Amino acid sequence: MLLNDLIKDLDIIDIKGSVEINIDDINYDSRKLKENSLFICIKGFSLNGHKFISNAIEKGSVAFLVEEDIYIKGYTFIKVEDTRKAMAKIASNFYNNPTKKLNLIGVTGTNGKTTITHLIKEVLEYNNQKTGLIGTIKNVIGNEEIASSRTTPESVELQGYFREMLDKNINDCAMEVSSHSLELKRVDECEFKFGIFTNLTEEHLDFHTDLDEYRRAKEKLFHKTTRGNIINLDDDGGKKIYESIKNLKTPIITYAIEAEADIMAKDIKIYSSGIEYKLITPKYQMNIKTPIPGRFSVYNSLAVIALCYLMDIPKETIAESLQNTNGVSGRFESIDTEEGFSVIIDYAHTPDALENVLKTAKEFVKGNIITVFGCGGDRDKTKRPLMGKISQQYSDYTIITSDNPRTEIPGDIVKDILIGVDTNSSNYEVILDRKEAIHNAVDKAEDGDVVIIAGKGHENYQIIGKDKIHFDDKEVVKEILGKE
Ligand SMILES: CC(=O)N[C@H]1[C@@H](OP(=O)(O)OP(=O)(O)OC[C@H]2O[C@@H](n3ccc(=O)[nH]c3=O)[C@H](O)[C@@H]2O)O[C@H](CO)[C@@H](O)[C@@H]1O[C@H](C)C(=O)N[C@@H](C)C(=O)N[C@H](CCC(=O)O)C(=O)O
Ligand SMILES: Nc1ncnc2c1ncn2[C@@H]1O[C@H](COP(=O)(O)OP(=O)(O)OP(=O)(O)O)[C@@H](O)[C@H]1O
Ligand SMILES: N[C@H](CCC[C@H](N)C(=O)O)C(=O)O
Ligand SMILES: [Mg+2]
């Protein structure tokens, strides 16, 4: 593509060199650049991308998008105020603005995004609509599965995935939209048709200064949508977002269990094997059953139903698909133990998620709840004591262990968790080695007990220091039970 076309509609401060040159690829990481490429220089949180220009030249870059005054003869330099913002525009131009044509459904909120996007994909495909998926576990384009390293990719990867979807006749896409991605302009040029809000609770307060700012980041999604916004009215953050968007032209559909909303669940029954409720919508009522347990499952299914309602998906299709789902990997996933106790792997890594999961287990446990959990390093520290308190409050026994310590010392993370724990009680212990912790929990379990292993869900790695080693909670449990 001609560089001149690529930079169309950008706010440019200065151009040095020719823009009548061909650009075959674009990237923001010098390590991934190809011949004839444009290198987008980003001033990051730890490194300055402008420092890698000579590496980029070695790789074959011919043009540079910069924020600093740099010029090297024989190359083209385009200066803008904000390269991250410009990158989103360039990425969309490079792939011929795919989201103009795609039915892009964005899901945001602290918890439930992965679950909801997977369920949306299932329902739409049940309705014979090929659907792409972007999110924490994986990105899916037809038969192709691309591993995710983040919940929401950078704009360059994102726009490339959308283009590939359209080229494969995939016209719908369910996508997780993290607050980081909204704040760091990864989704700036995405034309979302629908936006779904799940809930807002304590998380990522290392990145966002406070809960209000965290909410405002998420709120941006609902100002970008063109066909509909779907809001959880039982959630305080949801109520505030509703107030801020109620005068926009985009239709809003609300859902709730307690508040008055368009889409509601009544007569809710929660079992160890799933949930059942009576669905009430402005046009129809029907019974909904789904094999994912927990009150939070009612909310997740209501969000999916509200979207399908707006998209005019037949109600029978919605009900059948939700009833036949296999659930989502590492989300309240029960491991078949053939013992008298059960083991559940769950991705709860926030106080709210942990509380929900433990409350759900409490509703059906016959014996004790034994919980294994830790907190991620280099992430929000404020959630640590809260999770310690919640685990002790709802479990009969807690084993505090390591999650992904990253560059922090595991024992220091545990110290933060212990601030919320009554350390005079004997209903907890600390075992830093996660495998040993899981082993002890399973050994302790007796008939009727439930072992909850929280925090890592689908993850098949542990990040210790800068190393990513193989580690899979599910595999460890199966090994202990002699199933592998
Ligand atoms: C806080 C955050 O989001 N950081 C992102 C940010 O990193 P950064 O600004 O610190 O980048 P940097 O390391 O300083 O490097 C600056 C620039 O130099 C470039 N570089 C660097 C080295 C080199 O040799 N050559 C080179 O060109 C880098 O590619 C980058 O463009 O920009 C990078 C490149 O665009 C991202 O990869 C990186 O995400 C990191 C991996 C991350 O962990 N992000 C997490 C916190 C995140 O985004 N999480 C959300 C929410 C999770 C959820 O709740 O679901 C998510 O969407 O996943
Ligand atoms: N609607 C919900 N409300 C509260 N907790 C939930 C809800 N849905 C799921 N959870 C809990 O949160 C955990 C994470 O769920 P899920 O992966 O769907 O969320 P997410 O928003 O994608 O998280 P992430 O931001 O890490 O990508 C689940 O394992 C479960 O414990
Ligand atoms: N999307 C979340 C995932 C956290 C998962 C948990 N296992 C951890 O590593 O803290 C994050 O990047 O903060
Ligand atoms: Mg997710």
Automatic annotation (TrEMBL):
Co-factor(s): Mg(2+)
N6-carboxylysine sites (modified residues): 218
Domain annotation Mur ligase central: ranges: 107-307
Catalysed reaction equations from the record: UDP-N-acetyl-alpha-D-muramoyl-L-alanyl-D-glutamate + meso-2,6-diaminopimelate + ATP = UDP-N-acetyl-alpha-D-muramoyl-L-alanyl-gamma-D-glutamyl-meso-2,6-diaminopimelate + ADP + phosphate + H(+)
Binding site for ATP: 109-115
Pfam family, one: Mur_ligase
Pathway as given in its UniProt record: Cell wall biogenesis; peptidoglycan biosynthesis
Post-translational events: Carboxylation is probably crucial for Mg(2+) binding and, consequently, for the gamma-phosphate positioning of ATP.
Binding annotation for UDP-N-acetyl-alpha-D-muramoyl-L-alanyl-D-glutamate: 30, 151-152, 178, 186
Enzyme nomenclature, EC number: 6.3.2.13
Domain Mur ligase C-terminal: 330-457
Residue positions binding meso-2,6-diaminopimelate: 379, 403-406, 455, 459
Top-level lineage group: Bacteria
Keywords annotated in UniProt: ATP-binding, Cell cycle, Cell division, Cell shape, Cell wall biogenesis/degradation, Cytoplasm, Ligase, Magnesium, Nucleotide-binding, Peptidoglycan synthesis
Compartments (UniProt record): Cytoplasm
Stated family: Belongs to the MurCDEF family. MurE subfamily.
Protein name from the UniProt record: UDP-N-acetylmuramoyl-L-alanyl-D-glutamate--2,6-diaminopimelate ligase
Species of origin: Tepidibacter hydrothermalis
Origin organism lineage: Bacteria, Bacillati, Bacillota, Clostridia, Peptostreptococcales
Gene (name only): murE
